[in-house]
Structures are given as structure tokens and as C-alpha cells.
Model the fold of this input.
Amino acid sequence: MILTALARYYNRLATETDSAGNPKVPPYGFSEEKIGYILVLSKEGDLVDVIPHLSSDKKPQPKLMSVPRPAKRTSGVKPNFLWDKSAYVLGVEGNKDKQAAKETPFMPSEKTFAAFKEHHLDCLKDSDDEGLQALRLFLEKWQPENFSQPPCSNDLIDANLVFKLDGKHGYLHQSEAAQALWTAQLIDENAEQGLCLVSGKQAPLARLHPAIKGVFGGQSSGGSIISFNKESFASFGKEQGANAPVSEASAFAYTTALNYLLRRDNGHCLTIGDASTVFWAEAADKQSAVAAEGFFASVLTPPDDEQESQKIFDVLVQVAKGRPLQEIAPELAADTRFYVLGLAPNAARISVRFWYESTLGELAKNISVYWQDLHIEPCGWKGKAPSVWRILMETTPKRKGADGRLKKSESKDIPPQLAGEYMRSILTGRKYPQTMLARMIGRIRSDGYITGLRVAVIKAVLNRNNLHYREISMEESKLKTEIELPVGLNKSETDIPYRLGRLFAVLEIAQASALGNLNATVRDKFYGSASTSPQYVFPRLLDNYNNHIAVLRKGRGAEWVKKPKSTALWLEREVGEIMQEFFSGHPFPRHLSLEEQGRFVVGYYHQRYTKHVEAPEDVNTALDHENNVEENEESQGE
Done:
């Protein structure tokens, strides 16, 4: 299924050209590789010039070029045809001894050069093409010792090199004679014939599949989705690719399409956790497919431009209300087929983290529900909406450096499986991974940062996974009724953990109003125990709260509290309203489960960060002051 969809996508790309008029993907038997330099040869086989083939960026990088596909070097020495790295073409490679490399940056590589020379002298012996004859003469003359002389330079070391005949247009591998030779090499008369599982046709089967490059964290030489390198993987005496028969043409098609998707500059790849997520669309016309792909990328990684970002989310809001997608955005066809593939490295192999296939209409519906799940008041983020990557980064610890400033989070701390499970939930509309709830609550307890984004994710998991329920008595039997956590502050919510979170927030506000800035606040000292063992902690906190109220009643308090007595009166009303549930026969619970801890933090966030219209101005001033301190700390770790 995956390979078939990729092969179809290759067939579409093969008919398209890029902005420069070049084919988007190479034809069968060719591959796009990073070529650093062009070696210019005279007709006599002398190296007369070296031309850089680099980007014009601040830090130049080798540019892509369509060349005969590379040999798959699992082990041993295998030369490529008419191009290769310097170790094969010129017989020199980078000095692996770092100390010696300072004086002698390169060292001879005679074995690889000999293999390249022997292979090409054998292939080109009967050719009368002047360019290929020049290459044959070059290989007969060249000695690795010549590398120290102009026009060679150390920049060529370990770079991929191609050949060009002086005074002629194009490269040697592009000539008709070279392509004819290469086509002959592609035909393997000894290849096993069989039924291809991708195309459904009888064809020569691929023993080894071309390498897939560009997977985040993978080997630079590439990896394979399909490979059999141990006897335990084989069956019925079959070897390598014969265990999962795919023709040479189909193997080339799906790997070429995947390599195209994995290139970041093509806009079809997102890094989410440890997974490289590629996506593409199939539509009746190219414009509909491009529009669908652009829409998906913008939803998962919102653009920096706020107006453009808002347009995307306006579409999702309308989809959530049931309006047809094409009615909202005419360029988006709801029946467009859409594919999402998550890949992660696994040594020399590539593992599939997730695979999703559906229509754009269904996908847009699931993603709109995802953003509704995340909606919380006050808004859990500033600026543009958070990408999936940013949400996953919230599962990592927030650490402070030696200077007391918050350090930037590291992606390596994201659990490997979590990214794939979370992405699958977003795309399919299924339940979120329970690991997400545990990670968010664990991070809050360990580092103390209760960010709006963390709370929004906790609320989303509890609501979608139906983990928020209330027990009710009915004819002397207890029933569990599922209810949703509110988007914003709900003072009529009688859920005990939610009210405990609200109460803890009010106690924190009381302390800040009475004592001002402290090195360690109520939250710093008691949040972990209050959210897990309320019966043990809250009586002590209420005793301290009475002391703080006494300070405010005497007309004293923090410097920003102008009317301490009015502030004390409001705090007492809030505590009284919250405590009604406990006065009516519900004691403080001895322990709170993981789900109850989630409801606790949602209640805390609603009470702590909501603007209270009926409260004295001093209360909202105190909240603004504390919030600004927290936001400044969090921005250091962005």
C-alpha cells in the first residue's frame, strides 16, 4: 500500500518540471546526488580545470545533479559510473588522523581508485565517443600523487565529482554514448523474474533496493525500508529482495519519490519528534494537489505571518461547524486523496512510525477537532499557533543554566514513540496516547512550569480520552457520567480535583498579595504534594492563608496592592465559594490519580490566569505581575 502510493506519486512527478525547467525527478536508473565539483578534461585526458558546483549561500553547499544511480555499498568497494567521491575518482581521501590532518589533509586511497579505474577502462574500451575516450586516457595517466598539483585543491577532498570535456556543453554522463552504456549495465540477465507486488506485473526483481536518504537522525549513506540481511529473515530458501518481490522499476520509483519528499527544500517534509513526516496528495489536477499539500503543512506548522495563520484556522473553524470544505476554500477539494508517512531511523534500516491514508475532507475534519481540543481560555500560547513539534517539546524538562536563565529544551528528550503515537491521534481522530498526559503532569511536577500549552494538552487528552467523569447516585447505585472539562473558568463545576486546583490558585494569590515577591512561593514548595495528597497539605495551606488574610485586613500587603482590605474580602469570597463543596460533606481526598491531577492543574490554570472582572483592581494587578515574571522566564527557553 505504501510502496504503491509512492510509485504512483513518482509517475506524477516524472511528468512535471521545476521552476528552472528541469525534471522534478530523474528517469529510471538515475539519481539526484550532491555534486561538489566538475573535473574538466582535455581530449588528451589531462585535467585542465576544476569548476565548483556549489550553492550561492553564505556557506556554500554541493548542489543536486542527476547522475547514474550509485552502487549500494553495504560493504566492500563498488565504484559508481562516471562519477564518485574523490577516493574513487582521484585516489585521495581525507586524513582520518586528526592530528596528522593539520599538516597533511589528505591520504592516498589506492584500492578504491584501482576499482574505479578498472571498471571504467573495461566499460569504455570499445567506445568511440571523444568525451569517454578522454576519461579513459585520464584514468590511464592519473596518479594520486598528482593531487598536490594545480588545478586540484583540498576543497575536492571527499567531495562528489563528475567529468566534463573541455569546450563541450554538458557532462560526460549526459552524452548519448554514456547513457547507452549505462542502460546496458542496468540490464541484469541473471536477475530473478517474478510477480512484482507493487505493479502486479512479471518483471526482473530487485535484489537490493536503492538507499533512502534524508531521514532525520539517519545515516548519511541512507537506509532501507525493505531489506533482508540475515537468514532468520528469509523464507522458503529465498534470498534478499526475493522474500518481498518488488521489481527493479518499482523499487526505483518508490525510493526516488521518497528521496524527493525527504528533501527539506521541496516543502513536503516535517520533523516531528524523532520522525521525518512526509506527505503528498493525489488529485484530478496538479493545482488541487499543491493546494492540499500547502494547507496540510500550514496547519501542522503555522506560518509566522499572523494573517496567513488566521486564514488557515478560519477554515478549520468552519469545517468544525459542518460547512463543506470546498465551499469554504474553493481551491481545496474534499475528495483529494491524502497520504502521510512517518519515518524514523533504526541503524541501517528505516522504521515506519505511522501511515495515514484518507481524503482531504476527512483529514481537515480531524485536524479541526484537534485544534478545538487544544482551545483553552485564557489562550495557552502567544503569537502564532503552536506546531506539533513545539507541543512535543513541552514534554521535555525545562532546565536552568548556571546563570539562572532557562536553557533551550532539547529534542533528544522527547520519548521516541510518543511523536508517532501523538501524530497518529491527530490525523485519525483517535484517542491521544496516555503517555502524553503522564509526561505533561510529570514535567509540571518536576520543573514547576505550568505553561498554558501544557495545560491545553492535558485538557485535550482528558476530554478526548473520556477520562473526566463524575459519580452520581441513582436509586442507591453509583453511575459514572462522562463530562468535559470546560474551556474557560467554570465556577459552577463541582468536580473535586478541579475545585482543589482553583483553591490552590487562590491561596497562591493571597500569599503574593500579602507578602509580595518571594524566593519560594506556595507553588514552588507545595504544588507537587497538593496535587497528589490534598488531605495532607491543604489544612496547612489554609492555616497560612488565614495569616495572609490577616495581613491584608490590617491594611498591609505587597507594594502593588493599593486596597488590601478589598483584596482580602474578594479572596475570602472566592475561598468560601470554592469550599462549599467540601463543607457539604466532601472531605479533602487522600490521594489523586493521574487523571485527577490533570483536572487539578486545569482548575488551577483557569483560576490563576483568568482576568476576574468582579475582583478589585489589585488582584488583577497581582496576577499580571506574577504572569510577566513567568513569561520572561519561559521566553528564555524558547
The mean pLDDT is 86. The radius of gyration is 32 Å. The longest strand covers residues 349-359.
